[in-house]
Amino acid sequence: MNRMATRLRNVSFVTLLGLYASSACAQSPAEFINDASAQGMADIEASRLAHQKSESKEVKDYTIVVINDRTTANQHLAKIAKQLDLPVAPREEVVEKAKALMPEVLEGTSFDEAYAASQVKTTEQAIEQLEQTAQTTDVPQIKAFAEETLPKLQNHLQMARALQASR
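Below the sequence we write its predicted structure tokens.
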């Protein structure tokens, strides 16, 4: 639990650094796809862990929605990359980036509380990135992806806030 606690403590900082770095200069389509894929993978893995560890039906129901939506989004990103013939990072590199983004549980709080709090923060950050991308990209497929994915992430955020309030 100590290793997991350390990871969850640092995720907000790491994620914020990544988002600020990416917003400082416009991302290329390949960079966006790699970053969004890594964020999606991190969200999927954190939700899988929460699904295994939590005894709460609310949390388990939420994790299923997140896993399904983020898996679909990552599959869509892979199709876009292929359509645009974009050079994308090797899977291992994306997995390593995802590991760095995985939420950490703060010590002194329950796992469910920490998971809900991390989901609120990381989902808010993902929404900000997609909103910025939707406004600045000139790639129609990426703009469509952002516009299609935003409502799902906004739903995740509402659900995560409800989970957080109930803890």
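Confidence is low (pLDDT under 50) at residues 4-24.
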